[in-house]
Q: What sequence folds into this?
């Protein structure tokens, strides 16, 4: 595993990929990393911002897109942005509208930082992106826990019905998890079991990031 202090002394960003199933707790891990080190030290990018935009489709058809398949993401743009951040440039990250399944008109400017964290279900499944990471993390959680969390989130935050969430889970989320996400766990340097609330595992990971942020 790459030494974090070497990365800091070498004056290049240390790249961390945080993957895991939908609602596994990976965003909790990523955001805690960012909060610990501070916004000046961490640039946080979320894979969800890079869904391929489909302005040509009516909203009903956009809702039917398989958003858990690798083809749903604009990997070229994401890789370009990570490369630019690594080179010291700021990037305009799209802001995704989950209700209308579209990229919004606004963008969020992400500035280069000592640590770059890329968070998303498939960030360890895409070879070009995966090879950029100095540290690869997989957040693991039981399927029933992930489903319950997703059900609650999509009903409360995205205004969806329980029936539509269950149908999507059975037709795309679960199959894609088994085909693409779960197999990517073998690439991880660190596996955090029991989701983002595993305090013991989080403490170890956070200590490593604190070491880098304090250099």
A:
């Amino acid at each position: 595993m790459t030494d974090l202090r070497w990365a800091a002394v070498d004056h290049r960003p240390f790249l961390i990929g945080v993957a895991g199933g939908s609602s596994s707790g990976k965003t909790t891990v990523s955001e805690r990393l960012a909060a610990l080190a501070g916004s000046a030290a961490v640039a946080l990018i979320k894979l969800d911002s890079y869904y391929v935009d489909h302005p040509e489709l009516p909203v009903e058809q956009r809702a039917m897109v398989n958003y858990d398949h690798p083809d749903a993401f604009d990997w070229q743009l994401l890789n370009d942005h990570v490369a630019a951040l690594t080179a010291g440039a700021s990037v305009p990250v799209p802001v995704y509208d989950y209700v209308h399944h579209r990229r919004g008109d606004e963008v969020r400017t992400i500035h280069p930082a000592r640590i770059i964290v890329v968070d998303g279900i498939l960030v360890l499944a895409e070879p070009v992106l995966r090879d950029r990471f100095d540290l690869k993390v997989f957040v693991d959680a039981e399927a029933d826990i992930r489903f319950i969390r997703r059900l609650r989130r999509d009903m409360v935050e995205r205004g969806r019905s329980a029936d539509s969430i269950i149908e999507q889970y059975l037709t795309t989320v679960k199959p894609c998890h088994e085909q693409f996400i779960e197999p990517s766990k073998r690439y991880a340097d660190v596996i955090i079991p029991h989701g983002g609330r595993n305090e013991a595992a989080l403490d170890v990971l956070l200590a490593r990031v604190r070491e880098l942020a304090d250099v």
About this structure: Residues 1-9 have pLDDT under 50 and may be disordered. The CA atoms of residues 64 and 95 lie 20 Å apart. Residues 4-213 form a domain with the Rossmann fold fold (CATH 3.40.50.300). The first helix runs from residue 4 to 9.
